[in-house]
Amino acid sequence: xxxxxxxxxxxxxxxxxxxxxxxxxxxxxxxxxxxxxxxxxxxxxxxxxxxxxxxxxxxxxxxxxxxxxxxxxxxxxxxxxxxxxxxxxxxxxxxxxxxxxxxxxxxxxxxxxxxxxxxxxxxxxxxxxxxxxxxxxxxxxxxxxxxxxxxxxxxxxxxxxxxxxxxxxxxxxxxxxxxxxxxxxxxxxxxxxxxxxxxxxxxxxxxxxxxxx
Length: 213
What we know:
Layout: H1 3-64, H2 70-83, E1 91-107, E2 141-145, E3 158-167, E4 180-187, E5 192-199
Antiparallel strand pairs: 1-2, 1-3, 1-4, 4-5
Helix pairs in contact: 1-2
């Protein structure tokens, strides 16, 4: 076999191997995409079932009792967890109520300084001045303070808005223009999801809003 034929044969073999690798890689990617989509559909189905179970039990409680109080909610939560013990492992439920005077406040983060500690975030020549509060990539944080709680004494801080949902335990009165809501958050080893389930104050009407992730 001449050198030219050897080179041609070698080139053909390399080209075939490259093509086979590309096909295998593409097929693997498609299988992975299909698996992710299937997992997402399965999760959405389970969340929809959970929402339906919540709706059914809240409907019964609202029919049998004048108001769904903490005792009734604790009972409903136990029943829901008993129905979905594995799915609801590492899941938190928080019953919330709208507080029109709640404060959404911006505070320094764990480093105790506005912006990134020991860094001039706003490039004004002053390190860690109050104007750096909320700087991009810093650990500064937003918190929600119920109107019935004392305001934070941490300085500096900025109130960004008034009005937010707070835990029912922090809001004794009910705001009739906004429904109560249930915040459900799950944080597992490899997955995380959440949704908000709204329950209007008026008996006999209901709606839910899904923000599953």
